[in-house]
Write a structure and sequence with these properties.
The structure holds 2 protein chains of 2 kinds. By secondary structure, chain A is mostly helical. In chain A, 77% of the residues lie in helices and 3% in strands. A two-stranded antiparallel sheet of chain A has the order 1-2. The longest helix of chain A has 73 residues. The chains are: A mainly alpha, B alpha+beta. The interface between A and B is medium-sized, with 27 and 23 residues.
Chain lengths: 302, 194
């Protein structure tokens, strides 16, 4: 069976009730016991018996007239003693009962006052707890109600100020993150757009050169250059389409890829300008190294 | 605000608390006193009544009887006109008890017949104290021929003054503050007229 632990407020409340009742009980019992000890001590002083002895001892020494007066006086004293004893018993009973009334009254009064002040202190804490819960759920528009009579009102005011400050900083941070993301995006886009432009420009320059010098292989170069331009335009279109769909780069697909044709293709535009010869050995096929040729070609240095 | 103010205030509060509490609880355990054996009869020219007050003593009350103070039980006998709900005649009498601490015996006085009984034990004195014997209510000739009558008996205890206490002790608390009453059956003059 799972035992439910009482809340923090309930625990404090129970502890206070326990301490209050115990302390009042302790003091009440202490005073009642002391009073009982005192009355017991008084009762042990048997005045009645002493008066009886006194009467017996001196009655015979008196003449007839005075005997009656003496008896009346002794009787009065004995009656007074009885009254005292009775009044004492009655008083003890009253004190015992009345102390119960006062105990109940004081306990109730203290508990009511305690509960009132306790609520005054803990209610703002409850509100703060609820507010932090709301914030943890992402609601930054919370504002804890201020209570001028609460001793914790200063805490509420500080909390509200802190939440406003945090929300302001959070918004600034989000704005900065957005700007940074846009900058990154722009950089990537510029890079992605620039990559196909370079081979296109180099191919066109090569074609221009061949055309200017009426080279023999002009037709072949023309076909090669237009093929390169077509492919790069296709790449750009694909990139633009995918970007417009999800504003993201095409998803990478791992495939086996032969680097040789790609490198040969890349070298071609540079061959006419370079003052050295390109020599190509056979490169191995790369196993699941990268994505599509177009993507890979975009990443290769030119 | 000085200490006197708080002293008065606390005294007022405590007194109020005790007063309110006393409505619900008392230091005194009361008994339910009641009349029994109400008997009407004719004695000569008079209608007489006898009755016993039952369950009117408790150990706490016995303690008061032994205090040496005079304890008085008052009785009210009312002759009621049953038809008109009127009191035709009423008489108050009492039984008083006094304990002699020195002699350790009890004396009882019954005012209806002016008898004084002395050197009694507690049991004897309680018996006399609680018993109404042949109390003359009215002469038969004074009754109206056409009216039905009833006799109502009521008893109560007097307050006693105890030294060292500010206020007198109301002994009715020992009867739960209820005056016991007894009512005879209805009777008419014809039943007693010879």
């Amino acid at each position: 069976m799972k035992i439910k632990i009482p809340s923090f407020r309930s625990q404090i409340f129970l502890v206070v009730i326990f301490l209050l009742f115990n302390s009042v009980f302790f003091f009440r019992n202490y005073f009642l016991d002391s009073f009982q000890d005192y009355t017991s001590a008084l009762e042990s002083m048997d005045t009645e018996e002493e008066l009886n002895k006194f009467y017996q001892n001196y009655n015979n020494y008196l003449d007839r007239e005075k005997k009656q007066d003496f008896k009346t006086d002794i009787e009065t004293l004995l009656t007074l003693e009885r009254q005292k004893s009775f009044a004492r018993d009655l008083f003890q009973k009253e004190i015992t009962l009345y102390s119960k009334f006062i105990f109940v009254f004081l306990s109730a009064a203290v508990l009511i006052l305690f509960f009132f002040s306790f609520s005054l202190i803990t209610r703002p804490l409850n509100r703060l707890q609820a507010a932090t819960y709301e914030i943890s759920r992402g609601n930054w528009k919370v504002e804890v109600k201020e209570s001028k009579f609460s001793p914790l009102n200063g805490l509420i005011v500080s909390f509200n100020a802190m939440i406003r400050e945090l929300d302001f900083n959070r918004k600034k941070l989000i704005q900065a993150e957005k700007e940074s993301a846009w900058r990154d995006l722009a950089r990537v886009m510029a890079h992605e757009i620039k990559n196909p432009l370079t081979p296109m420009r180099l191919s066109l320059e090569r074609l221009e050169q061949k055309f200017r010098y009426k080279a023999d292989d002009l037709d072949a170069v023309f076909l090669n250059v237009t093929a390169v331009i077509h492919e790069e335009i296709n790449n750009l279109q694909k990139f633009a389409t995918e970007f417009s769909l999800f504003a993201k780069l095409p998803a990478a697909v791992k495939v086996d890829f032969d680097l040789n044709p790609l490198i040969s293709e890349i070298i071609k535009p540079y061959e006419s300008q370079a003052d050295f010869d390109f020599e190509m050995g056979a490169l191995p096929t790369l196993s699941r190294l990268s994505d599509r040729p177009s993507r890979l070609s975009g990443r290769m240095p030119r | 605000m000085d200490s006197t103010f708080f002293s008065i205030l606390s005294k007022k509060i405590i007194t109020s608390v005790i007063s309110v509490g006393s409505i619900f609880y008392s230091t005194i355990t009361g008994v339910n006193a009641s009349f029994s054996s109400l008997e009407l009869s004719a004695k000569g020219d008079n209608i007489i009544i006898s009755a016993t007050l039952e369950n009117c003593f408790s150990p706490e009350l016995d303690q008061i009887l032994r205090s040496g103070l005079e304890i008085k039980i008052n009785f009210l006998a009312e002759l009621l006109d049953q038809e008109n709900q009127k009191i035709v005649r009423d008489t108050i009498f009492y039984h008083s008890l006094k304990y002699s601490v020195l002699e350790d015996d009890y004396g009882v006085f019954t005012s209806e017949n002016q008898n004084y009984y002395n050197q009694l034990t507690l049991a004897q004195s309680k018996l006399i104290l609680s018993k109404i014997e042949k109390f003359q209510i009215i002469k038969i000739e004074n009754l109206n021929q056409n009216i039905n009558y009833r006799i109502k008996l009521t008893a109560w205890l007097d307050k006693i003054e105890i030294r060292s206490r500010d206020e007198p002790l109301n002994l009715m608390f020992y009867w739960k503050s209820i005056k016991p009453t007894g009512l005879t059956t209805s009777f008419s003059k014809a039943e007693f007229a010879q």
